[in-house]
Structures
1.
Amino acid sequence: MQLTKNINTALAVATGSLLNISTATAEITPEWELDIGTLYYQESDSRVQALATPVINIKRLFADESSVNFKMTFDSLSGASPNGAAIANVPQTFTSPSALAEANAASTQTSASGNTGYDDYDDDDHDDDDDEKYISAFSSSESEGASGYTVPAGELPLDESFEDFRQSYSLNWTQPLKDNVTMNLGGSLSLESDFTSMAVNGALAKEFNQKNTTASIGFNLELDTINPHGGIQKGLGIYGQDSAIAKSDNKQVGDLVLGISQVMNRRWVMDMNLSFSYANGYQSDAYKILSVVDRGNLISDPNDASRYLYLYESRPQARLKISAFMRHKFAIGSDDSFEFAHRYMTDDWGINSNTTDLTYHFKVNDHLYVEPHYRYYNQSAANFYTPFLEVDTDVSINGTEVTANRNYASSDQRLAAFSAETYGLKIGIPLDKNSELSLRVEQYQQQDQNSRKEVGAGSNLDGMSQFSELSAQWLQLGYKVRW
Amino acid sequence: MNKILILILLTSVTGCSYLGVKPWERDLLAKPHMSLEGSAMDGAFNDHIYFSKEASSGGSGFGGGGCGCN
Amino acid sequence: MTYSFQLTQLKAEHSSSVAGCKVAFSAMASPCEVLFDNDDLTQVLELGLLAQQEAQRIERKFSRYRDDNLVYAINHSQGKAISLDEETAGLMDFCYQIYELSEGSFDISSGLLRQAWHFDGSDNIPTDAQVEQLLPNIGLDKAIWHPPLFTLPAGMEIDLGGIGKEYAVDKVFELIQQRYSGAFLVNFGGDIRVHGPRSDGSAWSVGIEGADAERTVKQTTVKLLSGGLATSGDSKRFLLKDGIRYSHILNPKTGYPVVGAPRSITTVAATCIQAGILSSLALMKGNAAEEFLHQQSIQHWSIR
């Protein structure tokens, strides 16, 4: 009888847990949990971005197993972001959006507010001070000044001046109800100088099968207001004409998530979910443009021969995303684990993506664990993605009239086809039963998977890269404690 | 891949009683490194970075507040 | 109920010097004692009182004979769910685990069978009908254990007597060990747990009854450095009819005594509870008792 052989071991395990549970140990039931983290992020290839992000998360737990969670995030970006124009073998000049904004503000400023140093409560002065602060802090050189910047031949056009500071706050309440049902309610607010987001979320979860199965349903409703420096431009309108159609615009997003988690056996737990996200409203990147190209050559703006022709990008007003996600976690030995996760996403912009995440948790001793991590990602391009616009096919030029022959276009690399790999390592140092220090480093590398768009031999774009493979590294320091 | 997905979906939805553990068999699953959510902070940082560099977002739940970067 | 408490200084066997102290009291219908390898009477008194308190606490909490405790509430719950505290929940988890490990032989809901079986040495064996009418109310799988709620259907009852004493031994052992680093021995009516070695390096000597190859019962001395020892079985309780001896070890699944069980089994294991469970499980195996213990690599003595 097989069972006979194992009885003693199983019995020892059972006795062990019996005598341990009942013994009064000094194990605290935490009331507070504090999690502090900070992230340092940078990109290679002269798209240097240093992002220092302190995050503070505080959670208060109550005796009835309910809890309240408050989180604060402060992102400060500095550096450059591609403006969407194509790399060419000639220098290109652009106007920075906040410079445009300042130019606009300056033209309406009255002489009464000339005493900038003295009167802090004058709104106009305050805005100017802020803009100047951002430009001087984040521009790579003083000589670029407020009127624009020039990108040398062969370099990726990057706009350095308008990234700024973001603060976000969220509050969440978890409350167990009767019948093994738990409810979640939360709200969040995110603020940047050109973007505001407010959201509410809620979820219900129910446990079955002696808490082996949990089914949940959740929603998130978000309202975003975009008020870019320089205003909202007409989609596929001409760049540089200072022709904003509105100061701001907005979008609404609704998400629905259905999930199930299931304990499979003593060593295996998994969860999966299906999510739907529908966004409606202004989805374009207000600062991004596309080069208009004639068989590979940049062409002049018919309204201003001193500059090349660029059009603002335009994205559809609606986007529906569907994601299927699954995660498995396995206990290895008594102190290690292995996790495998996969997400498939598809949307009505023509983007399909796959994300695979593998993580191994390895306990070295009571005060040290390591977690190597690998992530593989690929995505197809949005159906309106193009690295640049073609004359005649995409854009018709009749004298000074420029007409787009398509509704949508964007050269934003985030909508292109690429794959990416991340290699990472986390080191955790539990200081005692209730606190832990951690360090995490990750290396991210993208790979171009776009088909090359044909350009004429010897043209401005001949031999120029049409997708700049992003390479980034980030380092995260964390400390968590509970009491 | 699809077949495995469907199989797992079916078995977990029907809530078979042979899937799962008794309360006293949760010794390993109760350990922090076996928690499915993992470190919320790591997840939040990662999500924010990938959200600003890639076209997909979320999947394992939704975080609070968007940002003007996608 | 009066509780008496005795503290004695022991004399060494071979000399007139003091060799430790002993605390004795009565609990769980058994003589209980704790032996300390220690001459500090004050400390022994303190620890001994602690041991008595804990033994009595466990008795009060889990005894089937009281009408003011959780067990009474469960047995009179009429099918309503009762919320168990952490300690009782832990014991319930344990009982379920053993129930499964033993494939239903160890069952805390089987006490109901005493309504049919009265082991007084007479020939009053119950009729089949008497036994069968009890069976629907026996079987731990009929109760619902969804921590922390335990639901016992009306008509059923639970009895923790099968592990109560051994559990008390292990709990008292832990209490003392947290406060005292010397050697000591806990003995509640034959269920023993020791912490050694003694100050002179020797092990604790425990006398037990075992049978040799010729089935002669004799006293053996077991030397224990650490661990638990328990004895199951009592040769004085049985029924005898038509030349067939019915032992008092009942199979919860059939309602009838196990055939061929030894009269007594003593086992040694890491804790007293383990020793107790193993000796109980062995008895349930009837003729295969010794073979079962042998397979578990457990030191054991049996009397048939």
Note: The two ends of chain B are 30 Å apart (CA to CA).
2.
Amino acid sequence: MADIREVPLEKIDDYRWRIPKSYKPGMRVPGIIYADEKLLKDIRHDKALEQVANVAFLPGIVNASLAMPDLHWGYGFSIGGVAATDIEQGGVISPGGVGFDINCLDGNTFICNELGYRIRIKDYEKNLNKDKLICMDFNKEKSDSTTILKFLKQRPRTVVLNILTETDRGISATSDHPFYTKDGMRKASELQIGEEVAIYPFEGVIYEEPNSEVIVDKRDIKRLLSKLGKGSSGRAREQIIGHLEKRNLLPLRYNSIQLPYLLKIMGYCFGDGLIYFTGKRKRGTVCFYGKEEDLKNIKEDLIRIGFNSGIYSRHRHHRIRTFYGVYEFDRRETWLKCSSSALAALLAALGTPVGNKCYQQYELPKWLFKIRLWQKRLFLASLFGAELSSPATMTGHGYNFYCPTLSMNKIQDSLDSGYKFLEGLSKLLSEFGISFHKITQRKEFVNKQGIISYRLRLMMTSETENLINLYSKISFEYNEKRKFLANCAVGYLRLKRQIIREKEGVAVLAPKLYNSGKWDREELCNYLDSLTNINERFIERSLYEPRKAKPRMWGDNPTFEEYIKQATKGLGCSGMVWERIRSISDLEFYGYVYDFTVEHAHHNFIANNFVVSNCGVRMLKTNFQYEEIKNKIKDLVYTLFSDVPSGLGSKGDIRVSAKEEREILVKGAEWAVEKGYGTKEDLECTEEYGAIQGADPAAVSDRAYERGKAQSGTLGSGNHFLEIQAIDQLYDRDLCDEFGLTLGQITIMIHSGSRGLGYQVCDDYTKSMIRCLEKYSINVPDRQLACAPVNSPEGKSYLGAMKCAANYAWANRQCLMYLTRKVFEKVFSASWQKMGMYLIYDVAHNIAKIEKYIIDGKEKTLCVHRKGATRAFGPGHPALPERYKKTGQPVIIPGDMGRNSYLLVGTKKAEEETFGSTCFTGDMRILTDKGIVTLKEIYEFNKLGLAYNAFSLNKDTLSTEWKPILSVSKRVGPAIRISVSQTNRSRFSTLDTTSDHNFFIFDNAELKFDELHKIIDNQKMVCVLDRLDIRWKLFFPRLAFLVGALATDGYIDRKNERVVFTQKECEEKVNFIKYVRSSFEHVFEYGLNEGKTKFTSGDIRGRVITGSATDFSTGRKHTAEEIISIFDNIETWVLGLNTESTFNFLAGVIDGDGTWNPARKVIDIFAGKEKVIGAVVLACLKLGILPYVSVQRENCYIIQISERIEELLRFTKRVKGMPHRQKYGSKLFSVRQLFTENWKSGDIKWPFKRKSDRNCLMEGEKILRFLAWQSSSRYNKEKIIKITNSPLRMQRVKKVDDLGIDELYNIEVQDNHNYFIFTKTFVPVLVKNCHGAGRVKSRTAATKSINLDALLKELESKGIMVKASGRGTIVEEAPQAYKDVNEVVNVVHNVGISKRVCRMRPLGVIKG
Amino acid sequence: MENYEFIEHTADIGIRVKGNDLKDLFKNAASAMFDIIAEKKSKEQRAKSKEILVKQKADNLDELFINWLNELLSLSATEELIFSDFKIDKIDKNSLQAVAIGEDIKNYKVNTEIKAATYHQLKIEETKPGWQAEVIFDV
């Protein structure tokens, strides 16, 4: 725990603490903890801080890793998307749906298939079948396989990075693609040189499509059977053939889908397998010998091709005489037996030896030489799994490997065939580039049968390359241990190769440098030492004792054994190893990138909570409408009643051992899912993913265990029930759509708890806490309220036990849901998936929770007990699963029998209180990595959990960079309108802000900030952005031109997914049209068709204008989709382009909607669509062009470009002109603000004096030119040079208007605390964060008042069917005691704590 | 078996039970509790019964009373029995020793599950004819 105490915390204010990003390399955002000092102490005991910090590693995390006041220490972030990914393939993951966050791999990246072949990811487009990929189960530290659910292909939207590891492994991926590192999943862009990433060393071989020739057919089997003497009586032969045909194994072809598995099985048979036919009827059996875990894999493969088998074991005593002596040992022998004549016959027909291989004459079947390399690999790998020696280094050495050796025993008669067999093998191996050393023969002792056998050994060479080929291309199958060692060996050998190469290099370089005479010995050693990992001794020896032999792997380098330990730390036996990153570089990239979504969703992060529940409710939906099942309700109710155990002491069929029970207490619903009683998806829809962390099974008494043992999957009695309902009222159609709910739809609600275990926990602790009342001097009027301080040992112990009960309850409800689904399956004879019986949500409603509230203006920490109340997180809450981020948490309010139930969602009412005083109005736009976005949008999307990075200035380096926006706040206050422009005369370049907001200025060549009204009063000028320095550089010149042209002159018919490009075919446009059409063909391999020509006539200012225009269009869906997806994110897309592509984009826009203004010799672009203007402005800024934007009428903008025109016109096809030679400089600076001190003291010369006196702007380049003549003692030259080289310029500012009270927004930007805000005409002005606390206090208003337990049963005879196990009379005796659920919901809805979604009417009720 | 009566309570079940002495009171309270929980399926049927020794200690009578009832509930759940008879051997304000006699739960029809006997509004008092207790059960 020591390291946890060291988590550094910075105090923000009394209730907020920050874990700085620097705490751990890899934290993307700081952690923010809401707590007071006392609480913090407790948190320090827990792993909470560490957890907060760990959460900050997650890709896609929102702004900061927050531990909110109402969460106290527990809630991890809901991540939803950290899926299991195969690391070797670069982490296959797609954070669902958000268009611009899809992260991808280069199409040439190889993906490793489960069957050990490699295929380029781009080829999956054609080949997306049921292929399974290797992936990683982080919890079990094991590799696993997974099915591909979704395949993605698109053009990259962020820079593509090439990552190289120390052993020369390379991968190209978009910068946001996650990789698995020691700190968890991290984006490629955040990886650092020297950091370790997980690598799966196995490579396999490239996939080739096999042909469809037949290997074995009916006749072959018949022939074989008659040879074996299997009679034709009793249709035995026909039966065998029938079996094989039924399983699609006859005829067997090279491309049969079973062949890969057969090859593996066969390979193993050649080694540790045995085929025999016994008895009169020649029944065939196939046996495999090996370790149980490996046999299980064979068993699975046998099932895949349609055969069952069993694993058996026995103890055996062995006595063996060998060359070295007599050995005696006991061993547990395990074998897998498949008693299928059909399989035995098929394998034999394929050429597998029957009977004792020692006596048989057999060779490799000829057809094996005809199969594809990847298929050969399967055969060899499993043969090796059985027979090839383990990768191991020499005893007492540790660096060099033994020769891999494959041995077989043969008697004299079959010796020849043995040689032939091994020669055949070596022929196969040579195809993999693996060479063999020799075949040796040794005479063995007389065996049991009294026959002398000979041992033949095929020894491969132990050269590094040979071994790498063997272990990375072929490796082992059906032998997990050797497979693991092979992976390690590949990692080790590559490292070794690298080190030796380095050494070789040094051995050559060192004498060369030394002999040049320019280096002394020490210098040289230091230099070479810094270059490589090689020790000084080696370098010295290179100088004095030129070596004859190759350098070796000695000294500081790890032995194989040490390497395994280090390289697989934390990766277990997955076969993955850590490798250091050597370099990361940007790629000029053209083409598509690809990605998968895989099924193996792995949630490593399970939300953690302080809360406890032993009672809750879950709701699931179905596809049924009331009309469809109304006649079945009786059946359902009766079957449910008989199949779902209910009532007192009811025991379920789901019985568990004490050990398993302990597991339930910790794992909750996940236990049930692991048992097969549900799916991972169910867990996502369960509060806390169905398990609270921190459950302490030791805090639960034996008696409680006893009571809980048999009650999993039982309903219990009291107010617990299971109800079939129909939706009878929709309140919010949008929300209903989100949940997939319609009027009349059937839903099911399950209300139950932790059963006997929970009662016992409660009873035990009530008993013990009665002692605490005295111990802690607590005075309560009712002993049933016995309690202990939350922080006391008793309190803690109770929490640990309560958590257990909560988890048990979740597991129980999961089991109940499973039983319910089973009942539906029984009644309707359809699978539950087909019936759409998906869980909507499971939420606990008996809760005790630590929260902070403002009481009398003071923040206080409370332990809020919620009995019969449910939490209700609003939209965007981090603890919500992805699917409910948008809607808010579903809140389920069950009515009691006969009453309606409700589904609501949590809201975020009055969540924000901001104390900052400086802000902008919501329609102001800022520059983010998602384009130009209004503050209001950021505010709204931030609530949905979308993360933005703001373009921000680093005050020290005066360079720009992206920085996360930490928070967005909103308040109401007075605003003013200012204008920012070069001349101070612009009417359009306005900003709406508060007069006290801090803007950046230069003062005596120092970057400072000041309140706006002071800046205006002192006639100072503010800093604006001069150019966008962004290193993204996607290379799509022709596509960029097309996008520019289509953005202005094109039309995308989104509904019909058509792209239309309308042009008047006049002479000046011919080139342009031609170029667009050819570009289209070039980019999409598909042209634009010429369509209708339309004639128009209109009236402009009294003149009749007629014209004609032709449509060029394509109806290709994919093309339209791609263009639409670019248009949807056009600003981000433009941000990513490289220089040439950016020029092309602008050229396309100019050709589309631009014109040459001969009078002023500038280009004018007319644009109406704001998104396009944003993109054009960004493109200009990227090229260092300062566009001048003016507004004509309401919505028409004119963008004037006066720089780099010559270059631009090289890319345009239509717009041409003769530009000025003169450069229009507009990178201007206030001379007075650069030379403030000089001006004040009078120590200032021409031309700066005059410009300062008049408070003029001066071009940066001119300033530098004049400055060059001056002595540096007078002026602060260095600073001024830095400023003029920075991506900033300066403009004048003045107040234009008072706006009165308005809604105001502000954001908090990490580290730099500044961002660029655009004026109405897109001048990016640098401004500071709000200087106030800027606190966004988010709290979840929970539905405290809903007393679910106190809801009344009001049985009405409305055709509601009730089946109860108990009399259930007593509870119903006091109906007045219950609040009407309808009223409760009304109150909750009207107050705004939750929002109504729909109402359900009960149809049938099962009650305990 | 009508040695108890229901008392007014909103959500849970409350009973008032009487006894000639403490032994009687404890016995009747336990009987009442199991009477609420279950009724025998067939009166005539005589099944094998099981006896279980119950020992409890407490700081005061209230605690002893609640512990006694909760212990029986707990035993009933783990042993899968419904208790129908109780022999209280020794009792004072701080301790109790008794034998609970029960039959397999299968012979009973279960009506209500009682989670616990609570301290809420618990009253144990000596009255003229003997003892009286009021207790609320969490159902």
Note: The mean pLDDT of chain A is 74.
